[in-house]
Each structure stands twice: as C-alpha cells, then as structure tokens.
Amino acid sequence: MTAFDDLMAHQRDTEALAGISGRLGWDQETMMPRGAAEQRGEEMAAIEGVLHARRTDPRVGDWLDAIDPSGLDAVAKAKLRHIRRDFERNSKVPAKLAAELARVTSVSQGKWAEARAAEDFAAFAPVLERVVGLKREEASALAGNGDLYDAMLDDYEPGATGAGLETLFSALRPRLVALREAVLGADHQPAQIEGSFEEAAQLQLAREMAQAFGYDFNRGRIDKAVHPFCSGSGADVRITTRTALTDPFSCVYSTIHETGHACYEQGIDPDFALTPLGQGVSLGVHESQSRIFENQLGRSRAFTGHLFDRMTALYGDLGIADADAFYGTVNRVAPGYIRTEADEVHYNLHILMRFDLERALISGGLEVADLPDAWNARFQKDFGVVVDKPSNGCLQDVHWSVGLFGYFPTYTLGNVYAGCLLKAMQTAVPDLDAQLAVGDTTAATGWLRENLQRFGGLREPRDTIAHACGFEPSEEPLLEYLEAKFRGIYGI
C-alpha cells in the first residue's frame, strides 16, 4: 500500500470512531437515563482520548510528508487538506486537555439542563466557569500568538475571523434595526395563532414535513429533545424536535430546520463516506441549508399556503381567516426572548449579541459570574425587553455548556449564505413558487443537492457557496430578501 492508502485506511477508522462518539452524544440528549450523566462523561472522555491519539498519531505526519500531491486528483487533494489541517490543529492540544474537555462538557450539559429547569444560574455557574477556563486553555494552545477567539472560530468556520465577522455584522445591523422599527410601527399587525394543539398531531405533521423536504427515514429518525439538533452523517443521520401545546409552529419549523441539516448530510456523495469529505464543510454552510429549508422555502407565501391546508385538516379551524392571513401569522414579527423561536427580522440580532458576549468570555473581558447581568443589559438595549428569568436569558442555549464557543456566528453566516442561494435558485427554478404551493419541494431540494450538498467537504466554505451560486457571497441578497418580504407583509 502507498502512504496515501495507509493514511486513508487510518482516517476511515478514525471517522467511524467519531461517529460512535456522536451517537453517544445523541443518546445523551434523547434516551440516556438522567442518573448516567457522570458515567457518560467518563465514557466520552475515554473515546475522546482514543480519537485524539489517532488524530495526532505521528504516523499521520509521516504519511502526509511522504505523499506527493502532484499526481492526485481534486478529491484526494481535498482529503489531504482536511487531514493536514486537523492534524496540525489537534497536535497543538495536549491529550489530557482534550479528554478533560470531553468529560467536563458531557457533565456540564446535564448541569445546564437541570439549572435551566430550576431557573438557577448560580447552580450552573461553577461548571460553566470550568468549561470557559478549559476553552481559554485550548484557545491559547491553538492560537499561539494569535487571537484566542479566531482559534475557536476555526473549529466551525475555517477561514473566518472575529474581525471579519464584526465587519459583516456591522453591515447587517443598521438595516435590520431599521426594518424592525418599520415593521413594529406598521398599522397592520398579523394575528397570533391561539389554542391548544395536540402533541400527537404535531409530531405527525413534523414527520410529514420532514418527508416532504426529502428526509430519508431509511437512514434517519425523529426523536424529541430539549434543544432540537441533527446528529450523524452518511447512512445514519438523526434529528430531534420539540413540541409546545400552544405553539405548533415551534415543532413544524424546528423539524424543517433540522431536516435541512439532515438532508445536507444525506445528500453528500456516498463515495465520501467515512472520509474527511463525508460531512458538511462548515457550520455556516450547514446552517445555510437548515435556514433556507426553514425560512426561504418553508415560510414562503407559496409553501405556507400548503401548510395552512394541512394544519386546517389536522386541527380544524385555526382562527386565521385564510392562507394570506396565515402567511402573515407564520412570519409575525415580535421581540421575544428565545433565539430558536425568533422571527427572521430579529434572529440575527440575537446572534450578534451572543457573538459579542462569547468573544468577551474567551478573551477574559467578561467573567462567568457577570454573564447574567451582561446578557440582561445587552438584551434590554437591543430588544427593549427586560429578561424575566434565566431560561429566557443566558440559560436558554445549550452551546456554551458543551464548549461550543465560536459556533453562534455561523448561524448568521448561514442566513447570509441562504440569501445568496435563494437568489441563485430562483433563477434556476423559475416556477419555484408554483411547486411549493402544492407542497412539492423536489426541485428546490434537488437543486441544493446537485449544486451544494453532494460535494460535502470538497471545497472551502465560501468557495462552496460561490460554486453553487455562481457569485461571491455577500450580505446584500439576504437584506434584499428580508426587506422585500416583510415590507410586503406589513404594507410598509
């Protein structure tokens, strides 16, 4: 065997073991007994130790040095690019630190869930302080003399920097704020849906929506979780959702959102399975798929007409006059506490706030003890609403409890990318609305699969979007889409 063959065989087993680790994480959030948290932390630490050893195995460096890339095709070169980046990155992190991070974040996740349920930030603060301390230590190992937060970002969006994101977010903020003020001051305000919606019917509709958007249940399943998520790749891609008896849209759109993530993973070329190319290339690109499924397609006037018919058939009279009024209700703009339930106008403002706070946490400019006050003050400034309880404030998201610093900005990057993809899709599929109006998403999802999803990690993140769209990504298509949509709904 050649050095390339040896490296790929080693990588294949590493990818398989990483999949097992991911399945343990899925089980922890869906099926695991609550009393197993401490033991699961030890299990996660053990498997992380094995994975870290494989990812930093000196033979990987030897194989990389022995391979002559000049005779390789684009796919093989891309595999080497990913392996080299991961090898160099993981080699900077001590094995003991990697295992301790896995153990502490596994335990921290359970502590967060308990504290959130009890509305008790003080009970969570000690373990969050431990997580932040470990992440600062990891960032220092990775960054060298560079920026600590940039080192965290590279885990989720290779090539992104805090300074670059700050520039992007500064371009978004003024027009988002202006649009919000115009919408909230409009004479016409869509009605809010009211009533009680049976959980069984919500889950039935969730499965129907997942299937309508192309989710393959032969290679996946839907379960319930506190925080909806997607897990896995290739032949085993699982999603979760949640229900709220008075808010059927939470279940519907959480499911469509996670279906976008899942279809990306299921749509990747099967030949890339158990290789570095067999997963989504970045979380920003991943989020572009979930957000375009959820918003540009799922909340469009065309598709909400179909959804209105389905929900009326399931629940009877919704108290909404017609499909046009229902479109306004689905897209109703209102300041709210919860990021995952935020409308499209407010959503990115939630992310911009979290970006600033977590950047300060990693740099040391903000300490965990001061986080609730900092969150509440910033939230009132940005949204004009006083935070009433921790679960509506800094305890609402799972991300920091599991050490995902640098993850939040990829949500807004995903929205920016989704705006670009919609613009390209509308040109490629001129009868898009007519198809969505009858619940047919196949042309839209097929276009995404053909132009983006099947390539997995073949290209760098921005190149993945540019290849699909035919132009370089920018914030302008997203802003144009939002302004046209919500000025139309609100008559402004």
TrEMBL record:
Top-level class of the enzyme under EC nomenclature: hydrolase
GO molecular function, one term: carboxypeptidase activity
One Pfam family of this chain: Peptidase_M32
Catalytic activity line of the entry: Release of a C-terminal amino acid with broad specificity, except for -Pro
Top-rank taxon, per record: Bacteria
Name of the protein this chain belongs to: Metal-dependent carboxypeptidase
Taxonomic classification: Bacteria, Pseudomonadati, Pseudomonadota, Alphaproteobacteria, Rhodobacterales
Keyword Protease: yes
InterPro entries according to UniProt: Peptidase_M32_Taq
Record key words, sorted: Carboxypeptidase, Hydrolase, Metal-binding, Metalloprotease, Protease
SUPFAM superfamilies cross-referenced by the UniProt entry: Metalloproteases ('zincins'), catalytic domain
Similarity comment: Belongs to the peptidase M32 family.
EC numbers: 3.4.17.19
Function: Broad specificity carboxypetidase that releases amino acids sequentially from the C-terminus, including neutral, aromatic, polar and basic residues.
